[in-house]
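Schema walkthrough. Field components (list of strings):
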Amino acid sequence: MRPFIYEQPQDIRTAVAVASRFASDGDQPTRADAQFIAGGTNLADYMKLGVAQPSRLLDLNRLDEPALREITVGDNGIRFGALVRMGEAADDSEVKRRYPVIADSLRLAASGQIRNMASLAGNVLQRTRCEYFRETSWACNKRVPGSGCAAMEGFNRQHAVLGTSEACIATYHGDFAQALIALDAVVRVEGSRGARNIAFAKLHRLPGDTPHIETELAADEIVTAIEVPALPWAARSMYLKIRDRQSYAFALASAAVALDLDGDSVREARIALGGVATVPWRASAAEAALQGKKLDEMSAGTAAEAAFAHANPGRHNAFKIELGKRALVRALLETRDMKV
Ligand SMILES: Cc1cc2nc3c(=O)[nH]c(=O)nc-3n(C[C@H](O)[C@H](O)[C@H](O)COP(=O)(O)OP(=O)(O)OC[C@H]3O[C@@H](n4cnc5c(N)ncnc54)[C@H](O)[C@@H]3O)c2cc1C
Ligand code: SF4
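Field assembly_structure (string):
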């Protein structure tokens, strides 16, 4: 690991000011000299591997704003402070009762130790686990723009089938993000140009021909909170995760589903897919296919077909299309049968 300076700013204003001082115009957060660290379970890993090389770490854990560590439930929805730990949010009784898809997505992620260390903002901003990205001797457009992509012709079993580009097929590996995108969450951000809200659906960028630009955040912007509105379909929701083993593994395919039902008919469906796409993936075509329909195996199957209609597999990951469809059908039927 390269030497770096470690700082513990006491308030958001100072943290932003230091980040701003070390950021050049247009710097990406993941390529800036000064980078924020929360739980460190992702960033420290990539620093040890030589993938991330900040010369200054700004530890957010001493920031004095209590709201950064709080979960607040109100009539309009739920607000998660950015520094709330994954484990805390997964175990929160109101989250479990009102937003089961959120609690499930966090409970099924990583291990107990990591969930106790990792923050919610850090979780949604985690970077891909593409093996070629993690090993610096391989060509990787995300790590070194313009260098090529070793995964295209390499072992791409874990890689994405949706949202891919000629430059990058890396999967977005997180779980929580799927629940957030299905529930229309908003990310609250503070930076040197002031505070702003970003729709969660707009936070992550498709790789296109600039896979090194991963989010809409500027290098001096801190995520302060994630807000989820109170929606009629939030309580009837779940997250289904399929993985190689039943714990401590990333999703091969996953589905976050939230339903507003009128009897067995779908008033509104919210669907997001994980493990199969380059970014947290809202399956809008599947949602539209279900609108007004009786939800049964047949209509769920039609929705799953729609979700993967534009899938583009590599040599080793075509199985994810069938796996993803089956995961979605199961998640839809189990969500329909939930007792709410
Ligand atoms: C073995 C292993 C298994 C795992 N399995 C899963 C899994 O199954 N599902 C899953 O979802 N995740 C999984 N993870 C990933 C883990 O959940 C993430 O590493 C963790 O959530 C990151 O949170 P953190 O607070 O530690 O982030 P950090 O490592 O501190 O930061 C991650 C990134 O976010 C930025 N950042 C952090 N906080 C802020 C903020 N407030 N504002 C702006 N930028 C910020 C950092 O600069 C950095 O770029 C696994 C990790 C490991 C090591
Ligand atoms: S898939 Fe993306 S992250 Fe992986 S090697 Fe190719 S460019 Fe890099």
